Amino acid sequence: MCLSTVYKNEKKPGNEVLTNVMLIECADGFVTLTDIMGREEKVKGAVASADLTGGCVIVKEAN
């Protein structure tokens, strides 16, 4: 199973949005993240990069 940590704008400790993310959905200018416990976070923006083998996703936050 591949789970990821999602960061806003760049990978650094203070920018973590959600860990153990299993599902990423993009619609209407938002990125919706769901972790393995069913918790959801929404970020206004778009996926900038996804390193699935490294478990790291960067979401570029929109203004």
Could you outline the blueprint of secondary structure elements for this entry?
Blueprint: E1 4-8, E2 16-27, E3 30-35, E4 40-51, E5 56-61
Parallel strand pairs: 1-5
Antiparallel strand pairs: 1-2, 2-3, 3-4, 4-5
Computed Rg: 10 Å
Proportion of residues in β-strands: over 45%
DSSP E strands, number: 5
Order of helices and strands: EEEEE
Q: Spans of 5+ residues with little confidence (pLDDT < 50)? A: none
Helix/strand-derived category reads: mainly beta
End-to-end distance = 33 Å
Give an account of the 3D structure.
The protein has 63 residues and is mostly beta strands. The protein has strands at residues 4-8, 16-27, 30-35, 40-51, 56-61. Strands 1-2-3-4-5 form a five-stranded mixed beta barrel. Strand 3 and strand 4 (40-51) form a beta hairpin. The chain starts with a strand and ends with a strand.
Question: What are the defining features of this structure?
Answer:
five-stranded mixed barrel, 63 residues, 5 strands
What's the quick description here?
By secondary structure, the protein is mainly β. It is 0% helix and 65% strand. A 5-stranded mixed barrel has the order 1-2-3-4-5.
